[in-house]
Structure formats: structure tokens, C-alpha cells
Amino acid sequence: MWVQDVMSRPVVAVDEDTSVRVAAVTLAEHGFAALPVLTGDGQLAGVLTSGDVLRAGELSADLTAADTMTTTAVVAATYQDLAEVVRMLLRQGVRSLPVLDSAGHVQGMFSRGDALRIMLRPDDAIEVGVQARLDDYIGPRRWQATARDGAVTVAGAFTDDSERRIAAALVRTVSGVREVTITTL
User: Fold this and answer.
1) Across all residues in the chain, what is the average pLDDT?
2) CA dist., res. 61 & res. 30, Å (int)
3) Fold of the CATH domain 3-118
4) Closest CA to 69 of 88, 90, 45
5) What are phi and psi of 166, to 5 degrees?
6) What CATH number has the domain spanning 121-184?
């Protein structure tokens, strides 16, 4: 299994010039261990961890994410083996890490919590999570989700290809989903 199959997305990130105070609020509000810090062209500049914020001490108005972040970020590639990435987390002593595509853009985040959810999360929980996302978007039970071994099938009435793409994108945001199939009733 690849890390891209189970990473968390969409990515919440901050720019280098974001104030550390704003970034700290973002960390706290989402309960994240770390945020990717991006350059102006969307490349990873570093990672801002809760430890970085705490070490900064008083968060003055002119202190930025770039001033405070860890610049030697531990990263994974989207097609990196999941077991290898879990070992990286443990070996490097980090709680989460950015997952980059071949162009160096952050595609997701992977955390120790994600690893635990994979170990503990049965298909029933994936199915419930997917169904909740779909129902929130389109209304109760217009599309039906089923899951088996992390492969999710969504069946229902779709008005066009864009609805099928939206359904697939929503499904991929649920942790543990490996594969998505869309079928029309």
C-alpha cells in the first residue's frame, strides 16, 4: 500500500510570510502536530510544528512561519511504501510529515494518528465516513457507499461526469480509502 492511499487531505498549509500567531491558531484549531510551510510558488519550504511554536516563546506580530519553522523537514513521496513511511515517522521521532508529488508539491499529510487509524479502522468505519461526506454534499442517501478492504464503491444517480468526479474526490478525502469505483444505478 502506498502512503498516498491513506494520507490526510485536503492539505492545510501556511505561506512563509504567515504570522506565527496565525499559524499557531491554525495548528490548535485543527489539532494538527505540524503544518507544511509553502514558498510563493507552492513548494515546501519547511514544516511548522507545535514544538517550533512553543520554542519561539512570545509570538510577536512580526515573527513569521519562515522564522520559526523546521527547515530540514522529513518528507515522504506519494508512491512510497506505507510501512516504510511509518518506520520513518518512528525513526525520525516526528509525529507527522508532508507527502510530496514528483514536482515537490505537498499532496497530503501523514501522521502517527493516520497509521493507527489504518490499523484499527475496519471497512465499516470507512463506509460510514464516506457516506457522511456524500450525504453532506448531495443530501441523504442519493448515493450509496460500500467498502471492502479499503476499496469504496459509490452507486447512485449521477447527472453528469462532473458529479462522478466530485463523488470520487469526496471519497478520497476519507482516511483509509485505497480505491474508488463509481457506478450508476
Assistant:
1) 91
2) 22
3) CBS-domain (3.10.580)
4) 45
5) -65, -45
6) 3.30.1340.30
Q: Where does residue 114 rank: exposed (0-12), middle (13-18), buried (19+ CB within 10 A)? A: buried
| Domain spans of the chain, in order of start | 3-118, 121-184
Please work out, in degrees rounded to the nearest 5, the angle formed at the alpha carbon of residue 74 by the alpha carbons of 19 and 39: 40
Cell match 504567515: residue?
18
Residue 144, classed as helix, strand or coil, is strand
Asked whether 70 and 49 are in contact (CB, 8 A), the reply is yes
Q: Half-sphere exposure (CA, 13 Å, Cβ side) for 144? A: 7
Count CB neighbours of 145 within 10 A: 26
Give the whole-angstrom CA distance, residue 41 versus residue 102. 15
pTM, whole model, 2 decimals? Answer: 0.64
Average pLDDT rounded to a whole number, residues 16-40:
92
